[in-house]
Amino acid sequence: MSRLAICPGSFDPVTYGHLDIIQRGAKVFDELIVAVFNNQAKTPFFSVDERVQLLKASTVELENVSIDACNGLLMDYARQKNAQAVLRGLRAVSDFEYEMQITSMNRKLNEEIETFFMMTNNQYSFLSSSMVKEVAKYQANVSDLVPPVVEEALKQKYATGSFDL
Asked: Which parts of the sequence bind ATP (predicted)?
């Protein structure tokens, strides 16, 4: 049986921290679906379609990774895809409390699907999409935080003012 995991997130935008978890997860699972969700608590900078395209461009070399968009419950999506697991990245202890609540609810919704946590590489432990957007807003160098395609997309968004923040 193939081991399929879902790596969910808003990825607004995808960072090297996200890619660290995706690349390492791709080594553990036979197939990894990176699922782009719209976080209702946040106003998105990039549309879901833009985030999917940025992720596809950033993971093109990972043969067992696919990118998809989803709105709805993660556990419904995971069941629909016949996933055995959910892969979540943790940056710090503060992430753990939030993730534990989500995992507990997900377990209540579907106890068949396990959640696996992977610690982000220390070099990315401070990194968040929000921080990247804030730094990029002031034209600071983000080349060591995001892939080149994301850096260019950020520059274009800020140059044209085509976002809803």
From this structure: 10-11, 18, 89-91, 99, 124-130
